[in-house]
User: Fold this.
Amino acid sequence: MYFNGRKTTLPMEEFQETFCLVAGPGGQHVNKVSTGVRLRWNIRESSLPDEVKERLITRLSGKLTSEGILAVTSQTHRSQLQNREVAREQLLSMIRGALHTPKVRHATRPTRASVKRRLEAKTKHSNKKSLRRNNLDN
Assistant:
């Protein structure tokens, strides 16, 4: 994962994986094996710098528990391994998305031609509406 142009690694020890029984594909196999994966990551106790933690907490506030834990569940595949990979990728994409800083938009002025077109369209629309009016003054 990259932050401020530098590559940042998150150790796997920070993540807690639990496996659970889930409904869905698998047939008779589904009731016997825990194929669902719950991946949890505590942002406050992570090894990231404090500024990065604060940014993650503010950007992901709607997806965090009250303890500051980000949780992802995957149960779409039959195999535990595939669900594990999907959960990890979902979690990493959420983290990457929260760390991404959008480009600053600089205000620009509309061109003279676009202003002219807009004013002409307004005048045309105004004339069309004035023709629809009932002239009761006459």
In short: Residues 112-132 form the longest helix (21 residues). Strands lie at 2-3, 6-7, 15-20, 36-42, 69-74. The two ends are 75 Å apart (CA to CA).
